Amino acid sequence: MQISRKTIITGSAALVVAGLVIPTAAIATSLPLTLDQTGGATRIGQTDQSGTVRSAIDGRSAKNVILLIGDGMGDSEITIARDYQYGAGGRLPGIDALPLTGQYTTYSLYKDGALKGKPDYVPDSAATGSAWATGTKTYDNAISVDITGAPKQTLIEIAKANGLKTGNVSTAEIEDATPAVQIAHVAARSCYGPDTASCGADALVNGGLGSIAEQLIGTRADVTLGGGSATFTQTAKAGQWIGKTLFEQAKDRGYQVVGDGASLAAVKKADQTAPVLGLFSPGNFPTRFLPTAATVGGASLAPSTCQLNPERLSKDLSLASLTNKAVSLLSTRNSGGFFLQVEGASIDKQDHAANACGQIGETLDLDEAVQAALAFAKKDGNTLVLVTADHAHTSQIVDSTPPTSLSTALTTTEGSPLKISYGTAAAGGSQQHTGSQLRIAGYGPQAANVVGLTDQTDTFFTMANALKLNRETASLSRRASVSVEESRVRPGSTVALTADRFDGDRQVSVAVSAGTTLPTADVIDGRAGIRFSAPTAPGRYTATVTGVQSGVKVTETFTVR
Fold it and tell me: Would you call 125 a catalytic residue per the annotation?
C-alpha cells in the first residue's frame, strides 16, 4: 500500500490517513518560523505557506527509540559497502532491512555577517547532530547551541526529565561531535576537556558550562560507551572538583567507570544512582579493516581486497556488542522506556582519508549494530528504530580511472572490480563533506514519518513525539519541594535537606540566608540530598534550593540554637 502525505486544516475533527484515525488536535500548529528557530526548518508538523499543516502518518507512540547514525554515510558509502560485501544484487542485512525509507535535507546555517541565518549547504557533524538532537538548525562547529549561542535542550536531556532511561554509544571519542550533541552545549566542537584552549567562554574557569566531557558527567545518561578516555585524565580547572581528574569526578558522582570488555560484561545494572561510563580507547576505536591507499591513477591498478586490522578491539567491544549491552541495561523490566543513540563514527573519518576499506569496514560495523537494534525492536514490539547519517561525503563509484583525482579498485564478493574515486582533495588532504540529501529509514511506531522528503530537524520531533515527551521540562519541576530532617539544630551541626520532585533538573544549587552558597548537587530520579554545617550564630535561617536547569526555587527554614 502506498501512503501519501496530506495537508490538513487544524480543528477538532479527526483525520483519517491510510486507515489510521489521528485527532487533529494532537497535531502541533504554529506560525511560520525562521530557519534558525527550533522547528523552523521542519517539513512536517509545521504550517506551510498556505497555512495548512502536514500530518503525522502514524500517530502511535513508542516506548523506546533507538537512533543509529552512520557518520558520513551517504547513499554512495552505503552502496560501496553493499557492493563490496554482498554484491550488486545483495542487501545489507541491517541497513537495507528497515521497511520504510525517505530522504532528508541536512544544510546548516551561517552564523555571522550578511548571510547570518541563511543556508550553508555543506554542513559538518556538529551542526547536523544538533539538528536531530534539538530540532534546531545551527552553524558548523556548534554543539547544541543556536546561531546566537543559546543552549537548546537535547533529546537525552528531555527524555531524562520525562523519566526515561538514556544511552549514548559511539566508536569515536565520546567527546566527538555526534555523541557530544546529546550531552553538551558549547560554541566550538573541539572543546573536549578542561585543557582545551578553544573552550573560551564555555570553560568553567570563565563561568561557562564547562567542556564537553565535564558536561557529559553532569548530563548523566544512564549508559555512555565509546572512546576518548585520554580526555578524562585531565583535571578540572574550576568548580567543586577542581584539581581532580574527570575520571575521579565521575566516580565521586556515582558512575560505574569501566575500560575493558570484561569489566563491561560484569555490569548488570545502570541507572541514575549508578550510571555506566565505559571508555575503551584513548581516542577513536581502531577500524575493522586496514587502510587502502587511494592514489592518482590507483583504480587502474590490480584490484585488492580489504584485510582485517589486528589492532581492532575485541568482539565484545564491537559496535553491535555495545549496542546489545546498552539495550540490555536500558530495557529493564521496571523501565518506563528509553532513548538510545548509537554512532558508527569512522565511516566519515576514513572517507576524509580516502580510505575505501576503512569506510567499508565501519559501514559493516554499523550494519551489524542495526541488526542488533532491529532484533530487539521486533521482539519488543514497541520500539522505533531509525537509521540515517549526519551528512553526505565524497566517495563515488566510477566507471573508469579518473585522470586527476585519487582512486582505488577493490575486488567485490562477486569478483568484479569496484572503482572508487575521491575527488575533493589532493593526496594528503582531507576529502570534503558534500551537501546531498541523505537516506533515513525506520521500523516501528511512527517510522512512516520518515517517508518522502523531510529535514534533519524533523527527526527530533518524530522521536520526541513518538515517546510523548513533554519538551517544556521546566514545568516538570513545578511541584518541587524541600524538607529538612530536623527543624532545630545546634550551632555548627549538620543540616540535612532533601529536595524532591525536581524532575526537570539535573542539578540543584543551595543558598543559605547566612550568606553560604553550597556546591551543586546531582538530582537523581527527581531527588537530591544536601548536607551542610549549620551557622554558628543562633537564629532562624532559610535554605533556598534552585533547580539549575529549570530555575524553580523552593525554600525551607530551620532554627539554630
Answer: yes
